[in-house]
Write a structure and sequence with these properties.
The chain is of the alpha+beta class. It has five helices and nine strands; from the N terminus they run βαβββααβαβαβββ. Strands 1, 2, 3, 4, 5, 6, 7, 8 and 9 form a nine-stranded mixed β-sheet that branches. The N terminus and C terminus are likely disordered.
Length: about 210
C-alpha cells in the first residue's frame, strides 16, 4: 500500500495513462532477488515539490504493477510532465541502497529524487548530460540523502551493484545500465571515491 502526499494522486495517475500510446505498455522485467526478505519497500521524496511516497513495490509474487506505476509517476519529468514506465530493477537497487544506509545510520532515511525521467529537450539542456542519457529510457535517477555526503551515497550504490554510479557535488546518479563509475569534474582532487565500481565514463557522457 502506498502513501503519497498528493491529494489528487489517482487523478494524476489516470492522466498519466493518457499521455500517449505505448507510454505505459513496457512489460515488467523478470523478478530478481529482493534486496532483503520477500518484499521490497522504497521511501522517496521528490526534491522539486516535496511529493513523498512510501510503498512496497514487490513481494514473493513479483512486482506490484500499481506500486511501480506510482513510482514511475514520481519519476516523471517535472519540467514538461513526460512520464514513462521506469525499469523496476532500478527500484530494487534504490531499495537496497536505502536499506544499507538505514542500517548504518540506525534509522531509515528517505532518498531524495533530484532528477528522474527526462524528455529529449530537457536532457539536451542539462549540463553534462549524455546525448543518449539513461534518464531518457527510465533506467536512471539522481538522488541524495539528507545529512549524508554524496560520497557516502555513491559508496552505498557501488556496494549494492548498481550499473552506473556518478558522483556529483550535490547528488549521485544511479542507473541499471552497464557497470561504470565516474566523477563530476567539479569535485575537487583528492576526494575519496568508491573502489571496484567499474570503469569511469568519459566526461560529458555521464548521466
Amino acid at each position: 500500500m502506498a502513501i503519497v502526499t498528493t491529494p489528487s494522486r489517482r487523478e494524476l495517475l489516470a492522466h498519466a495513462l493518457t499521455l500517449g500510446a505505448g507510454c505505459w505498455t513496457r512489460p515488467l522485467a523478470a523478478a530478481t532477488p529482493s534486496p532483503r526478505g520477500s518484499s521490497a519497500k522504497l521511501w522517496l521524496v521528490r526534491e522539486h515539490d516535496g511529493a513523498e511516497i512510501l510503498t512496497t513495490f514487490r513481494s514473493n509474487a513479483g512486482y506490484d504493477r500499481g506500486a511501480v506505476l506510482e513510482l514511475s509517476w514520481m519519476w516523471r519529468d517535472t519540467e514538461d510532465g513526460r512520464a514513462i514506465w521506469i525499469e523496476p530493477r532500478l527500484f530494487d537497487v534504490l531499495a537496497a541502497i536505502q536499506i544499507g544506509i538505514g542500517d548504518a545510520n540506525g534509522a531509515p532515511l528517505p532518498l531524495v529524487l533530484t532528477s528522474g525521467c527526462r524528455s529529449p529537450a530537457h536532457n539536451a539542456g542539462t549540463e553534462g548530460a549524455a546525448r543518449q542519457s539513461t534518464h531518457l529510457d527510465g533506467l536512471a535517477g539522481d538522488i541524495r540523502v539528507p545529512g549524508l555526503a554524496p560520497q557516502v551515497v555513491a559508496l552505498a550504490a557501488a556496494m549494492c551493484r548498481a550499473g552506473g554510479v556518478g558522483l556529483y557535488p550535490s547528488h549521485v546518479h544511479v542507473d541499471v545500465w552497464r557497470p561504470r563509475f565516474w566523477t563530476d569534474p567539479k569535485i575537487r582532487a583528492g576526494t575519496a571515491l568508491p573502489r571496484g565500481a567499474g570503469s569511469p565514463r568519459p566526461t560529458g557522457q555521464s548521466s
